[in-house]
Design goal:
With about 140 residues, the protein is mainly beta. Helix content is about 5%, strand content about 40%. A five-stranded antiparallel β-sheet has the order 5-10-9-8-7, with no helix packed on it. Strands 1-2-6 form a three-stranded antiparallel β-sheet, with no helix packed on it. It has a three-stranded mixed β-sheet with strand order 4-11-12, with no helix packed on it. It starts with 6 loop residues before the first strand and ends with a strand. Bound molecules: zinc ion.
């Protein structure tokens, strides 16, 4: 596959953790998720392949949180607490990345963010991922 994807720089809030990421499909995979963890966390995530994230600084400062099936691994900075990325439960070959950590990107840049129905997780059901709804941001 010809790869002309852009390498994005990213960091947590306190910048103790820095990483670079190639996104699977740029910002076309942005979504929110309704699972118990994501709805508290509130972040908008975007997909990247496991090999396409490189932690360039502060890897030892990353903490990991797992719950329920333990398949998903949610990484966050142990200093500032900001979620950086997670190994996905619905596709363990991919990470979800916090778009707000990516340099020059704000979660408010996107008018519509798909909401995944993480309460009824796709791997708890037989059929594939479903979309629960769309959040609409209105630009002033
Ligand atoms: Zn931090």
């Amino acid at each position: 596959m010809s790869d002309n994807r852009k390498t994005h720089k990213a960091s947590c809030h306190c910048k103790a953790v820095e990483f670079t990421v190639l996104l699977s499909n740029e910002f076309n995979t942005i979504r929110r998720c309704t699972c118990s963890y994501c709805s508290m966390r509130g972040a908008v995530a975007v997909s990247a392949e496991l090999a396409d994230i490189t932690i360039t600084k502060g890897e030892s400062l990353l903490s990991v949180y797992q719950f329920n099936s333990g398949t998903a691994k949610h990484f966050f900075c142990s200093i500032c607490g900001i979620y950086t990325h997670h190994q996905r439960r619905s596709n363990p070959h991919q990470y979800g990345v916090n778009v707000a950590c990516i340099e020059g990107v704000s979660p408010f840049d996107f008018k519509e963010v798909v909401v995944y129905d993480g309460v009824n997780h796709p791997t708890d059901r037989q059929s594939g991922p479903i979309t629960a709804g769309v959040l609409r941001y209105s630009k002033q």
